[in-house]
Design goal:
The chain is about 55% helix and about 5% strand. The strands form 2 sheets. The chain has a 3-stranded antiparallel sheet. Strands 1-2 form a two-stranded parallel sheet. Helix 2 packs across helix 4, helix 4 runs parallel beside helix 6 and helix 10 packs across helix 11. The longest helix has 16 residues.
């Protein structure tokens, strides 16, 4: 795995936060690419960079961003930022035409960018092989998984609006299987909690009804889902 020539220190991170928080317009493409690289060391920086791109994307050259990303050690980090910005757009209920334009702009940037090689997005935040690292891999959210990374938390500030729905089917299935093996039987509410409330109740009910390792018992709100592996014992 390629890496940065130097890891950003606290002072450099502080300057990056200040640049983003005090920006009155779009930052230079080379600075955005550098911050995308640095975001692997701090989720807060990723969150702020996502907000910046969602706000000023129209003033940023997509070709300059693409060129900078392709020349960087981790090109796919910028793609992850763009995936989150797209979620922020949808959460903010933007006009359909604006969503389409942002999508075209993003595709110009990510054209030809290679995905990462199935690695944790955030570096140094969890012990190698530890519980958190395992959860990041098993329950990875779509903005990371799409670009070859493992990451669970969606980098969108809480004030942005509705919670994004971005847990992949694979991640949801892993969550349900893990819950079933641990609890043997559980409710749809327990599944929603395990998913971090990142899906709707209707989606949760559809999921649990379709997973072959679960046996639904009861009706309506009293329904529980029993692990079929426990029934065979």
């Amino acid at each position: 795995m390629k890496g940065l020539a130097a890891i950003p220190g606290p002072a450099e991170m502080a300057r990056a936060y200040a640049k983003l928080q005090g920006a009155k317009g779009a930052l230079a493409p080379e600075r955005i690419v550098r911050m995308a690289q640095w975001s692997r060391f701090d989720p807060r920086l990723l969150e702020q960079l996502v907000s910046h791109l969602a706000l000023y994307w129209e003033d940023i050259s997509p070709l300059a961003l693409r060129k900078g990303a392709l020349a960087s050690p981790w090109p796919a980090t910028l793609a992850v930022v763009l995936e989150h910005a797209a979620l922020l757009f949808r959460a903010g209920k933007r006009e359909r035409q604006e969503l389409q334009l942002f999508s075209y702009w993003s595709k110009m940037i990510t054209l030809g960018i290679p995905p990462a090689e199935n690695e944790l997005y955030f570096i140094g935040l969890s012990a190698f092989g530890g519980k958190r690292a395992r959860e990041e891999a098993l329950y990875s959210s779509e903005p990371y998984r799409k670009w070859g990374f493992f990451g669970r938390d969606i980098a969108i500030q809480k004030w942005s609006g509705d919670a994004p729905r971005s847990l992949s089917l694979t991640a949801r299935k892993n969550i349900a299987l893990d819950l079933a093996k641990r609890e043997r039987r559980f409710t749809v509410g327990a599944y929603l909690f395990a998913c971090g409330n990142a899906i709707s109740r209707r989606q949760a009910e559809r999921d649990l009804g379709s997973f072959s390792f679960l046996d639904p018992r009861g009706k309506n709100r009293a329904r529980v889902y029993v692990y079929r592996g426990a029934l065979d014992q």
